[in-house]
Design brief:
Layout lengths: L2 H11 L3 H5 L2 H14 L5 H13 L5 H27 L9 H24 L25 H20 L2 H4 L3 H24 L26 E2 L2 E2 L7 H7 L6 H9 L5
Helix pairs in contact: 1-5, 4-6, 5-6, 7-9
Length: about 260
Amino acid sequence: MNLFKIIKDIEKVDAEVYDRLDSRRGMFKSVGKWGGRIAAASVPFMLGGMLKKAYGQTSNNSAIIEILNYALTLEYLENEFYAMGLAASGLIPADRKAIFQQIGKHEAAHVTFLTTAIQSLQGTPATKPTFDFTADGTYSDVFSNYQTFLALSQAFEDTGVRAYKGQAGNLISNNDVLTAALQIHSVEARHAAMVRRLRAQKGWINGKDSGGTVDAIYTGEDNTTQGGVNLTTLGYSAAAISQAFDEPLTKDQVLPVASLFIKS
């Protein structure tokens, strides 16, 4: 879950979102103070309270709730995936289980935050969809074969990092938000690199090589033009360029990937 992405989406239907929450700088100072004073489990409720105070009496509720429910649905997918993987007997090797337990805790916290935020606005959280992580049998052994599980984990993590990058341009007008967002983005990228390493893959994406996951996730990763310059003309190979620059994914590119695993 990307808090800054959610707030930016809300800004599309309410340009005054930052003023309602407090000043932009003040908002992040408040969040920082919470981190040192209260239990992490309380943060979702505090943030939900902020949204309730900001939007409790406005006409934007339905649009904001729709945005939050969209994010919640995606978080349901990731949370369910890791929960099922951790529950599958003998799937994850003992010396790797702590890694996925921690990732699972992150996803569970995201679901809690979004659910609380929606309820604080008197909205109804979206019902958790029925997921098919086999994608109609394409990954039939996802919870019995560790390598297949890792492949889908890589797919979800790489998608998340590229989707986040796809929103960076929307944050560039505000230095405070962009700085905080990039700090979170770098940690998410490390998660993706960790999963790739667990698969004995390079920590970075190489061209459109999906590594046996979902081809659509790597659309555009073979781009050799950066800043309007085709870097192959400067003597760099296409592979080296791809590895050195990560490409963004738009929302329209992300949705078809998610739909592969949402049954109803």
